[in-house]
Design goal:
The protein is of the alpha/beta class. The protein has helices spanning about 10-20, 30-35, 50-60, 60-70, 80-85, 190-200; strands at about 1-5, 25-30, 40-45, 75-80, 90, 95, 105-110, 120-125, 145-150, 150-155, 160-165, 170-175, 180. About 40% of the residues are buried.
């Protein structure tokens, strides 16, 4: 079973529909007991970093989530803002502490040239084609849907799995152990997004 963490800030229904389309048993919940029963967790997110961390804290989810991800090492997929939340800190509207599962910080996009912020639209990825996450995806056809104004900066280059170009290199996918996170929305990225979700489902952490 896949548990999508519902803390009040995320496109949980579209994600659930994507997993259901792939034939997965999926629940949307903020119940730690259901998370305990799940085989995998998804941390979604849309909105501001500080508001999201406040919502997670108010629901008492920081300790249960850390237990599942850090102690039990369940596979965790962070999506969009959910990716940024796994960092140590964010500088969106001040400085806010994150979950701290990755040695990284979140900074505002600063693209060169006339490109606008937020970054909204389809972008290609630069990624290792022999990695299990990108099985069945050709680099020439690897376009994914982004909506964001901030991005993650990793302290450890080994955590950086894929990037995109938006007036400079932008972090698109990070991974450390059982923690995998994507800045783009796989559930909105058509066949390529569904392929990535299926590859994550097939992966044994």
């Amino acid at each position: 079973m896949i548990a999508i963490v519902d803390y009040g800030m995320g496109n949980v229904r579209s994600l659930a529909n994507a997993f259901a389309y792939l034939g997965e048993d999926v629940v949307i919940s903020d119940d730690p007991d259901l998370m305990d029963q799940a085989d995998r967790l998804v941390l979604p997110g849309v909105g501001a970093f500080g508001d999201a961390m406040q919502a997670i804290n108010q629901k008492g989810l920081i300790a249960p989530l850390s237990r599942q991800v850090i102690e039990l090492r369940k596979p965790l997929l962070g999506i969009c803002l959910g990716m940024q939340l796994v960092a140590h800190e964010s500088f969106e509207h001040g400085m806010h502490k994150g979950l701290g599962w990755l040695d990284a910080r979140v900074e505002r996009l600063a693209p060169a040239g006339p490109l606008k912020v937020p970054h909204v639209g389809w972008n290609s990825l630069d990624f290792p084609e022999d990695d299990w996450l990108f099985k069945g995806i050709r680099r020439q056809e690897a376009n994914f849907y982004f909506v964001h104004s901030f991005h993650m900066v990793c302290a450890n280059p080994e955590d950086l799995l894929a990037t995109t170009d938006y007036g400079g290199e932008v972090t698109a996918v990070v991974r450390r152990g059982n923690v995998l996170a994507m800045q783009f929305h796989p559930e909105k990225s058509q066949d390529n997004g569904l392929r990535l979700l299926q590859n994550w489902i097939d992966w044994s952490a």
